[in-house]
Design goal:
The complex is a heterodimer of chains A (108) and B (122). With 108 residues, chain A is an all-beta fold. In chain A, the strands form two sheets. In chain A, strands 2, 4, 5, 6, 9, 10 and 11 form a seven-stranded mixed beta sheet that branches. In chain B, strands 2, 4, 5, 6, 9, 10 and 11 form a seven-stranded mixed beta sheet that branches. In chain B, strands 1-3-8-7 form a four-stranded antiparallel beta sheet, with no helix packed on it. In chain B, strand 4 and strand 5 form a beta hairpin. The chains are: A mainly beta (108), B mainly beta (122). The interface between A and B is medium-sized, with 23 and 21 residues.
Chain lengths: 108, 122
């Protein structure tokens, strides 16, 4: 069974840039997997950030961007702010939906 | 405005059953695939299953962890999604979210409910 992998945790300084990745335990992520990204703060429902690799959902600031970097999908936050401190999940569509394990981002 | 509101969560004993509901509004419910996603305490998001729309014969699919125990259904006349959970285990304890799958060939969740907590414990 293929597992979707994400960094368990990451930290970034306020104003800094961070790139979170979403890979596969076997194989490469491509646009054919329609990567999407979700942000979740404790006690809240997920919020959709990015879909189809690099399309921002309505209302999402342009400091969030998505891409394919090498063999992984990537979420880049440019100019990180304190309220970006959240859990971030990627989803790949492989015939069915598969969530990554999530990345806990700390802004400090 | 699109809204998804889950209900029906609560405390249930292992081996018991529970039925969750998700009331949808603000969009043409019958057009969309609808999914259930859960999150155990302190853990990540886990896809539970999906019901497709009428055009796709309301077919369903499930995660291996719930297949044979959970059943997803919908009533388009009531704009409602359901999750019947049987033979519940302690590891089914989680917040359960309903989520709308986007239309078109984009395969992402564009709207989420606020979730309902299911606790399986004796």
């Amino acid at each position: 069974q293929t597992v979707v992998t994400q960094e368990p945790s990451f930290s970034v300084s306020p104003g800094g840039t961070v790139t979170l990745t979403c890979g596969l335990s076997s194989g490469s992520v491509s646009t054919s997997y329609y990567p999407s990204w979700y942000q979740q703060t404790p006690g809240q429902a997920p919020r959709t950030l990015i879909y189809s690799t690099n399309t921002r959902s309505s209302g999402v600031p342009d400091r969030f961007s998505g891409s394919i970097l090498g063999n992984k999908a990537a979420l880049t936050i440019t100019g990180a702010q304190a309220d970006d401190e959240s859990d971030y999940y990627c989803v790949l569509y492989m015939g069915s939906v598969v969530f990554g394990g999530g990345t806990k981002l700390t802004v400090l | 405005e699109v809204q998804l509101v889950e209900s029906g969560g609560g405390l249930v004993q292992p081996g018991g059953s529970l039925r969750l509901s998700c009331a949808a509004s603000g969009f043409t419910f019958s057009d969309h695939y609808m999914d259930w996603v859960r999150q155990a305490p302190g853990k990540g998001l886990e896809w539970v299953g999906r019901t497709r729309n009428k055009a796709n014969s309301y077919t369903t699919e499930y995660a291996a962890s719930v297949k044979g125990r959970f059943t997803i259904s919908r009533d388009d006349s009531k704009n409602s999604l359901y999750l019947q959970m049987n033979s519940l285990k302690t590891e089914d304890t989680a917040v359960y979210y309903c989520a709308r799958m986007s239309s078109g060939w984009t395969y992402y969740f564009d709207y989420w409910g606020q979730g309902t907590l299911v606790t399986v414990s004796s």
